Amino acid sequence: MGDAQRSARADEADGDERGVVETLERALPGRVLRRAADTSDYSHDRSHHPWAPAVAVVRATSTDDVATAVRVCRAAGVPVIARGTGTGLEGGANARPGEVDPITGTVPPRANVVIIDLQEMNRILRIDPDSADATVEAGVRRSGLNPVLAREGLQFVAGPGVDASLGGMAATRASGTNAVKYGTMAENVRGLTVVMADGTVVRTGGRARKSSAGYDLTHLFIGSEGTLGIITELTLKLTPIPEARSLTVLSFRSVEAAARVVQRSLQAGADLARAELLDTVQIAALNAYSHTDFRETSTLFIELSGETRSLVGQGERLDAIAESEGMLERRSIAPDDQERVWQVRHDALPAAQALRPDAYTWSTDVCVPIAHLAQCITETQADIEASGLVAPIAGHVGDGNFHLAFVLAKGDDAERHRAAALYRRMIRRALSVGGTCTGEHGIGEGKMSDLIDEHPSGVPVMRAIKRALDPEGMLNPGKMVDSRGE
Amino acid sequence: MGDAQRSARADEADGDERGVVETLERALPGRVLRRAADTSDYSHDRSHHPWAPAVAVVRATSTDDVATAVRVCRAAGVPVIARGTGTGLEGGANARPGEVDPITGTVPPRANVVIIDLQEMNRILRIDPDSADATVEAGVRRSGLNPVLAREGLQFVAGPGVDASLGGMAATRASGTNAVKYGTMAENVRGLTVVMADGTVVRTGGRARKSSAGYDLTHLFIGSEGTLGIITELTLKLTPIPEARSLTVLSFRSVEAAARVVQRSLQAGADLARAELLDTVQIAALNAYSHTDFRETSTLFIELSGETRSLVGQGERLDAIAESEGMLERRSIAPDDQERVWQVRHDALPAAQALRPDAYTWSTDVCVPIAHLAQCITETQADIEASGLVAPIAGHVGDGNFHLAFVLAKGDDAERHRAAALYRRMIRRALSVGGTCTGEHGIGEGKMSDLIDEHPSGVPVMRAIKRALDPEGMLNPGKMVDSRGE
């Protein structure tokens, strides 16, 4: 549906808004929130992008609930947005505010969309230790899943530091610190149950470890951010818990040296389980926030995992490479302290925020071919220096992925514009070396123009797929790709 | 385009057939074959599915050539089929014979399609050892690529035993013996150049190790068998050559015991590089064909790879599990003999064919959750026994994938029907435990009805995507999904 059509339908829906909500309440009694005070919490993610309270929230408990809600909303012409934990960083689950009415000059107080909240779909439906797979509802979180899997010696490895829902992680194609060894959500999901724009239920993939049967719908829905269908269940690939893990913290004079250690280790076939880079500003922020005493210079957190005996040999090789790159210091973290040190790393964003009083953070995300990583980071550091902004850097260096966290004063629009301009340059730098505008945070509404810059020939294909699967623009409108400009 | 429309257009094209070929010759001088004797070799794969000589073959040398050919053919309404080495097993690249004319009762002698042969697009465009990636044209074969990569200590790991082209492997979502450790083509391709049905050129993915930027077009084209676009270039993920490899051949009393060894090893976190199962009939065929003396019982070929020191520990664990499952014999293959023994394994299909004089083989392909593998194989063996057919079994047991090779007498239709019925039962068995009708051979024209059985809710979505990206049915018509029955 073109925007003109959508607007026309949205206008009808404004008049019929109460009608939709009442139909939803009849169809799903007790599952619908409608007061702005109640829907607000569900109407935005953790980004700085604008939002308004949705007209209603459906707290779904099953795939059938989701299908029912989609059908009711479609009949009324009111779009829907699927939502997990709301921990996204690009506005992917935001209810977008309506536009200024050209006659009255007012903005509608509510976003004319219905949020379908999936957090109560949190059942683990099946675990098969022999085939190392499980099927879960979309609202299950890793924190709920992994303790249950651990009883079988298994784990689910993909995902960010934040305790997101599996459905949201799949919809965003999330990854995190484990991706260097185990891959992203794309490599760890075998099949999906998806509610389509017309309310039909589609099952993709399956339980086999591989398949050549038909178009790869599983990967199409992974990363589609709820714009092609709503993921309600996932079949996950599980991984044995390794016998042992080692964690070392290595300090270097420069980002280049640290990045080169990881690059050379991977080239030598090292099986790095995690390889995290923190720049001087970020490590200082961690020290202040978590009361640690890491040397304040370019730092790697390296985890190895596997059979106990193999870790010794792997560690020796890593040390040899690190020494040849001028390692300043090496701390081996005792097994009992590893969890705590990883928590220090996962607190990078709040630690950054604590660098300035009354500040907020804006987390960025690019990913480049690993040989270009050091150069991209150091050029970005020089840009930060020149701009006078506060912006520590943390990176999943084994993937070539790094985040810069702008720490911005609330209400300072000029500073924010400086940050936005710097971010544009950082993205252009990433694209110029064959990288991507987002390694793991997604497009949402924040990076729609960057997506066009990155995939000028691909976006028309993406739009054709969007029109084919959601011709009326019912699913998460105004995100990812848009029919505007066609 | 519906079939009625396509037929109407095909009728026009029949009259205009010479016109298309002449336009192609003018646009791509010296690159067009037109005599049936010349086009026949390019008009079929290695399957038993029917074919007819295409009206022309374009031997493309660049993405531009492919785009030009597609545009000329589209203007004339003549569909195109992309072709690599023609080593497919499900008719994916076959030029389908025309249908019987209801008035004259004759079948057109030529298939009204143009084959675009990509084998001369065999340049390695770029290798970056530091980022461990490369970009190649679609006609490059692993046998051409890996010796060049080896100079940098790198390898490309995905792919079947046959020396197929990288483009064809991607289009079929191929895998092979390495998939248990390294994944399939889906996990080893980072980006593609694709010529679309209207002749536009699309670039998907990129060089970053991960990305959340937009719909995953790379995975959509991988496995689409040339029905959504023609892959002309690929950016590949490369893998360091391991320091050492070990190969052991383990003999067991039963398929169950052999399969359980692999399943338990994977559960224990073993990093198996290859895990191949051969049943008694297959190992006897290998012995006869390759003059080897393996014990004629259920057999595993297990490869471990990595650092020399780690192989010892891994091997000890594997042996302990194998002994607890009643291993009958264990042969450690000396490093210098490993290549030769793998060649024996890769010759499984000709070895099967040699079991009967003047026979042909029909290679099948299902994949199931690994816990169901032994049961699926033994039930299939019982079915073979009852049917009186000759059909050895070889399996990529670490993936739950196995092939049964029917060895059939030429011209014996009754035997072939018995084989087809047995294959249907084998597929139904796989689907009933959550498996797939094809682990790595693809759908082509041989498994279109099985695809519907496996993905009853997914096929309508696949058809919607096909219509969106190829509305006129220009690309590999009558394969994979079809608009018939809509």
UniProtKB/TrEMBL annotation, chains A, B:
Task: State its Enzyme Commission number(s).
Answer: 1.1.2.4
What Pfam families does the record tag this protein with?
Answer: FAD-oxidase_C (PF02913), FAD_binding_4 (PF01565)
Gene3D superfamilies to which the protein is assigned, alphabetical? 3.30.465.10, 3.30.70.2740, Vanillyl-alcohol Oxidase, Chain A, domain 4
Any one Gene Ontology biological process term? lactate catabolic process
Q: Which residues cross the membrane?
A: none
Q: Which GO terms describe its molecular function?
A: D-lactate dehydrogenase (cytochrome) activity; D-lactate dehydrogenase (NAD+) activity; FAD binding
User: Region entry Disordered: which residue ranges?
Assistant: 1-21
The family assignment reads: Belongs to the FAD-binding oxidoreductase/transferase type 4 family.
Report the PANTHER family cross-referenced here: D-LACTATE DEHYDROGENASE, D-LACTATE DEHYDROGENASE, MITOCHONDRIAL-RELATED
**Name of this protein:** D-lactate dehydrogenase (cytochrome)
Question: What organism is listed for this UniProt entry?
Answer: Microbacterium saperdae
**What's the source species' lineage?**
Bacteria, Bacillati, Actinomycetota, Actinomycetes, Micrococcales
